Amino acid sequence: MREITLENVTLDAFDHALLAAVQVDNQTSARALAERVGLSESAVLRRLRRLRRNGVIVADVAIVHPTVLGTPLTVHVLVSLERETSDLLDAFVRRLRARPEVRAAWYVTGDSDFVLQLRISGMEAYEAFTREVFHDEPNVRGFRTIIAMRQIVGT
């Protein structure tokens, strides 16, 4: 994901309105967006191109039902490392990025060093993941697992 800074991008009320709309449904037509925000279709398209080019819109994605993909279980994991040197952090991040189960990961402050969101097929798959990513990694001090029972809010 490309990082952006506020110095790079200036957003006005039209940009904010467009961003709010495409976060709900990025398939909304330019005509419908134009009517919603009070711009012409061409202005909407120009603004969306600029927002993508500048990295404000990072990706246009389809959210697919996880059961269809065979990964109905959402697991959140709090991971603590033994040491946080740059080379060890970079190696752990590379390890996470290589795993398709890892849908999102954050390097965080506090008691844990990372928060992971995994999509997996079941507990057997999670056990295999923990063995390969946590137990076989000497720099992992420990991890805590949180199993999602049901998603209440999400985008």
TrEMBL record:
<dbReference type="GO" id="GO:0003677">
    <property type="term" value="F:DNA binding"/>
</dbReference>
<protein>
    <submittedName>
        <fullName>DNA-binding Lrp family transcriptional regulator</fullName>
    </submittedName>
</protein>
<dbReference type="Pfam" id="PF01037">
    <property type="entry name" value="AsnC_trans_reg"/>
</dbReference>
<keyword id="KW-0238">DNA-binding</keyword>
<dbReference type="InterPro" id="IPR019888">
    <property type="entry name" value="Tscrpt_reg_AsnC-like"/>
</dbReference>
<dbReference type="InterPro" id="IPR019885">
    <property type="entry name" value="Tscrpt_reg_HTH_AsnC-type_CS"/>
</dbReference>
<feature type="domain" description="HTH asnC-type">
    <location>
        <begin position="11"/>
        <end position="72"/>
    </location>
</feature>
<keyword id="KW-0804">Transcription</keyword>
<dbReference type="InterPro" id="IPR000485">
    <property type="entry name" value="AsnC-type_HTH_dom"/>
</dbReference>
<dbReference type="InterPro" id="IPR036388">
    <property type="entry name" value="WH-like_DNA-bd_sf"/>
</dbReference>
<keyword id="KW-0805">Transcription regulation</keyword>
<dbReference type="InterPro" id="IPR036390">
    <property type="entry name" value="WH_DNA-bd_sf"/>
</dbReference>
<dbReference type="InterPro" id="IPR019887">
    <property type="entry name" value="Tscrpt_reg_AsnC/Lrp_C"/>
</dbReference>
<dbReference type="InterPro" id="IPR011008">
    <property type="entry name" value="Dimeric_a/b-barrel"/>
</dbReference>
<dbReference type="Pfam" id="PF13404">
    <property type="entry name" value="HTH_AsnC-type"/>
</dbReference>
